[in-house]
Amino acid sequence: MKAQLLQLQNQFNKLNERARDNFNSTLWLAPSFLGVALFYMVPMVVVVYYSMLNNPIDRQFVFFDNFIELFDNAAFRLAAFNTFTFSIVAVPLSLILSLLLALLLEAKIPLKSRFRTFFLSPMMVPVASVVLIWQVLFHHDGAMNEVMLFLGFDKVNWMYSEYNQLVVILLFLWKTLGYNMILFMASLSNVPVTLLEVADVDGAGAFFKFFSVKLRFLSPTILFVTILSLISSFKVFREIYLLTGDYPYEGLYMLQHFMNNIFRTLDYQRLAAAAVIMAVAMILIIAALFIIEDRFGKDVEG
Q1: Using CB atoms within 10 A of its CB, is residue 257 exposed (0-12), middle (13-18) or buried (19+)?
Q2: pTM of the model
């Protein structure tokens, strides 16, 4: 009987200790949770609420009418198409080029430190200065057109031609490659050396070691870099705005331009609907990336 009482008392003490730990953990997490709720969750709920109203004054629910009206808007369709095409080109390029640079710096090459510094320098340069450099390079009378004339080609009005997205993609790559390269270099240093040595003993070549060993251990970093680059591609409005203003040539009219311009008309319901569509698209893309990474890197994590 006494042994049973002692056993019950021990179980009760363990429960009390677990409850106390949970309570302490909740107290420590409460400030962070309140901050996330106040600055992220509550505003998102408010945006979804406004996206289903006819206007902020009458506040009558129209449910999905604002979304249907938005998809019927030619300016929104153009902005969504341009943002999609820019991201689908710029993000894979940023991913592949930064990985290639990391692999290059992993090898023994001369002037490695200066090479690395060159690609990290854009992180220290303000956006306005970068845009000024690009304006000098791609102005109608700028450096690039002088090179074109020297090579025997005609001048190109870069920001008002079919090549305008190429200009912004180059700017995007110049700004993002250095940071992504550092992330890949850190991930490559964590690849188990023993696996690479075993591959060398088995006579594996460089391509086999990269695709069968290194790439699998790089999968979490690839996911992280892809998400960062995707978010950055959606935020490229800042650079485009400084280059071209509120209403650029149609090839550079992005979702951020559309949302910024309708904000000036105080059309809150359409602005909220556009924000919800953009957020849902980002969530779906990132969820798909997580699923792909989970399947690809499952055996490595195990």
Answers
A1: buried
A2: 0.79
